[in-house]
Write a structure and sequence with these properties.
The structure is a single chain. The two termini are 18 Å apart. This protein has 218 residues and is α/β, with parallel strands linked by helices. It folds into two domains: 145 residues, Rossmann fold; 67 residues, DNA polymerase, domain 1, CATH 1.10.150.240. Strand 2, helix 6 and strand 3 form a beta-alpha-beta unit. Helix 1 crosses helix 4. The longest helix is centred in the middle third of the chain and has 18 residues. Strands 3-2-1-4-5-6 form a six-stranded parallel sheet, with helices on both faces.
């Protein structure tokens, strides 16, 4: 993979920002008020990397609870408060972004509003302006490949020229389905040093830099 032909596609939650534990805690707290209890394992299996539409359908299917507009508003309020107080970028991601010599972008299942707020809270907005792609831009969310394929097209590269960095099973499956090289990032608080299968795994951004020295400046 050459510098001229590479694109790095980052997921946001759990990759650029260490947000998944905050999201899980917000969902757990909120759903408990509706007499629904979810474990960390359930969250990772059913919510991680998925769109709000998928979460709504999953909760309805598994617990018979309709995720109304009020519930979604309550969740976003809780999450925004948690982000404002506790959200951090993943360790050393700023160093990596400032040193990348190849084009990069963000492709996330989150909404544009949540994504922009999260980037603002963590000081990462400077790295992402017109290179943000969200679930709202495509018909099918992850694990379908639509979002990654859309991002690659808009960034002017082919799928085989892309490196996808993901933390969730849905995102990993989406990257594989898009015929892109996939890296499983496990450095977030929710997946610390978690083993994985079928893909390259890094838990520290220094490991990415060491593995792809041609993509970063000294």
């Amino acid at each position: 993979m050459t510098i001229e032909s590479s694109l790095v596609i980052f997921d946001c939650d759990g990759v650029l920002i260490d947000s998944e534990v905050l999201s899980m805690q917000s969902w757990q707290h909120l759903l408990e008020t509706y007499e629904v209890s979810i474990s960390a394992e359930y969250f990772i299996s059913n919510f991680l990397g998925k769109s709000m539409q998928h979460v709504e359908q999953q909760v309805q299917h598994d617990f018979g609870l309709t995720v109304t507009a009020q519930i979604k508003d309550e969740f976003h309020i809780l999450l925004k408060e948690a982000f404002a107080k506790h959200l951090m970028p993943t360790p050393e991601i700023t160093n990596l972004l400032s040193r990348l010599k190849v084009p990069y972008c963000l492709a996330t299942s989150s909404s544009p509003e949540r994504t922009e707020y999260a980037l603002s809270c963590t000081g990462l907005s400077q790295f992402f302006t017109d290179n943000i792609f969200t679930r709202s831009l495509v018909k099918n969310g992850k694990p379908a490949p639509d979002l990654f394929l859309y991002a690659a097209e808009k960034m002017g590269v082919t799928p085989k020229q892309c490196i996808v960095i993901e933390d969730s099973p849905a995102g990993i499956d989406a990257g594989i389905a898009a015929n892109m090289q996939v890296i499983h990032y496990t450095g977030g608080s929710h997946l610390k040093d978690m083993p994985t299968k079928h893909t390259t795994t890094f838990s520290h951004w220094d490991s990415f830099i060491q593995a792809y020295p041609m993509l970063v400046s000294d």
